[in-house]
What we know:
This protein is 55% helix and 0% strand. By secondary structure, it is mainly alpha-helical.
Amino acid sequence: xxxxxxxxxxxxxxxxxxFTWWYSExxxxxxxxxxxxxxxxAYQACLKTALHEKGLDKMIDDARPxxxxxxxxxxS
Length: 76
């Protein structure tokens, strides 16, 4: 599956593969390590940039209160 921005697709695919491996080979066997954290952070950063470039970040932040989301538009 493609990401919201083609620049993020390789990171998404790499994270998806890592997560699938981690979930089946570690988590289901009782290991709670976070082996894919760096890939997730890189993909998340790419998504945040893409959402901002497309003007979607403000729309998402504005919608959060109406759906009762506990998340704010905090920049990390």
